[in-house]
Amino acid sequence: MTEVLERHQDVYPTRVSEGFSAIPRQDPVVWGNATDGPFDASTLDGFDRRGYLMEPDLVTPAEVQSFREELERLSQDPAVRADERTVIEKETQEVRSIFEVHTVSDVFARIANDPRVVNRARQILGSDVYIHQSRVNFKPGFGGGDFYWHSDFETWHAEDGMPRMRAVSMSISLTDNDTFNGPLMIMPGSHRTYVSCEGETPEDNYQSSLVMQGAGTPDEESLEKFADAHGIDVLTGDAGSAIMFDCNCMHGSNGNITPFPRSNVFLVFNSVENACTEPFAAPKPRPSFVGARDFTPAG
Amino acid sequence: MTEVLERHQDVYPTRVSEGFSAIPRQDPVVWGNATDGPFDASTLDGFDRRGYLMEPDLVTPAEVQSFREELERLSQDPAVRADERTVIEKETQEVRSIFEVHTVSDVFARIANDPRVVNRARQILGSDVYIHQSRVNFKPGFGGGDFYWHSDFETWHAEDGMPRMRAVSMSISLTDNDTFNGPLMIMPGSHRTYVSCEGETPEDNYQSSLVMQGAGTPDEESLEKFADAHGIDVLTGDAGSAIMFDCNCMHGSNGNITPFPRSNVFLVFNSVENACTEPFAAPKPRPSFVGARDFTPAG
Question: Which chain A residues are within 8 Å of B147, Cβ to Cβ?
Fold first, then answer.
């Protein structure tokens, strides 16, 4: 029945010419139950309200060390550097991101399929999950750029064909994230409202939007209303901690002039019951290393 | 004797071609005594160690309101907008800063000479003080830029001819400064070391350096050492609060993608016993609205 409705009516329209609009979320935030574990009822309740949760020690210091070494190794590997899934900064020739890193590296494949990770995603999404996107990020200090406010779901819906809000991101910190080195900022509670964005999606929008948001950027009026209503939470944590946040959280990060870089492993899980279809507002899906077309369950 | 020595030997050389170097501070940080008031001994001790202090409620909410209204009025005044002392952003045509604001506006002249302000500067500097620089700043949200690490004294010494470290800045917040909207960051304790910078001062360096630091920018190696040794303090506070910081603090601020702008009144006091001479590393002094040549005591 839902399937039939969706084909006739997009409940989350976006990239339309008529301007911006706010649409109430049509989907649950938490799909599973406390009895499923590992999260207890109050943690799930917090996630439901704020749209995110934090795990102070998801992985051990030894694991953090091994991830950093693997990231360093990958950054030096000529084959990885030449791969289209690797983003290299023109000016410094440094590796900024490696996409689909769970297929590039055994080390990152293991953590992406680790029960500590997958079972948390499964519980929130109430089903088996698959990896919609994975990457490692290296953000330098001394002037690393900002990332403007956006909802990931808006992009995944418009450009990857993700039907409903039933996906969750996990960011595992490989460095300490303090208030001063450009940590993730989330407007708590913003995940309950969908901001439909203006403008059509240009061809191959992903190539610019991986660096900076173009189409899919919310308007300032909506952001002001959101910030006044919800406030802004600054998500700090030590290396080894993890943040999980709902696909429709309004989030962003400021730049970083400090000497302290930031790096993380970023994993997006989508419910296998919410597998991507054709894009809702783009001529064709983005490449599969940015938005997976293989829906094999993780774990 | 000091006078004679200074003419023969610059104790704080900078903008030299031989590269960067760290020179221990040759001057006291606190020149006055606790018995002078208004600061008690422990507050002065904290300033001595960290290089800054915070006053949660220096001015009243009604004063903040009147300052904001005056800033708004000045921003609309065609004569002020046309004045060379006013910095206008090209893209948006909005006023970003008004220099020498204590001569432009009666409202700001009063606060710059107010005993709450001047007596604090007098006590730290242990003498009468004059206004070396004053300005109001308006920093927008939604992507307001960063300000890279620097020591003010390096510039004032090189380009304004300030002989020794005996000046203090006061920033009075007209908006709430949170961790997320680009607050002032200081490396506590950095004021005890002078970082000599590389390169000659270009003609009219001030025109670009008011917006972004060029000559007078510390090297990344020094900044890394400083950050590791001292850490970074993020100075947040409500509207009406004030920060006082030593002239040689290493400080900067990140950009601001949040919708919340920041504005402040910025006052630099120098000891009348430390009046500016010829620049130590520039062909001629900067204009007097940036570095005063009138040493009449404030208050």
Answer: 257
Segment A152-164 shows an average pLDDT of 96
Chain B (112-151) residues lying within 8 Å, Cβ to Cβ, of chain A: 142-143, 146-149
B257 in contact with A at a CB cutoff of 8 Å?
Answer: yes
Helices (H), B77-147: 78-82, 101-104, 106-112, 115-125
The span from the CA of A247 to the CA of A249, in Å, is 6
Q: A266 or A205: whose pLDDT is higher?
A: A266
Determine, for residues B257 and A146 on separate chains, whether the beta-carbon distance falls below 8 Å: yes
Sequence spans of domains, chain B = 21-274
pLDDT at B19 over 80: no
- pLDDT band of B212, cuts 50, 70, 90: very low
Q: Which residues of B touch A182 (CB under 8 A)?
A: 254
Closest CA–CA distance from residue B263 to any residue of chain A (Å): 18
Fold that domain B21-274 belongs to in CATH: Jelly Rolls (2.60.120)
In Å, how far is B289's CA from the nearest CA of chain A? 28
Residue of A nearest to B218 (CA): A142
| pTM for this prediction | 0.90
Q: Give A243-282 pLDDT, tens digit per residue.
A: 999 999 999 999 999 999 999 999 999 999 999 999 999 9
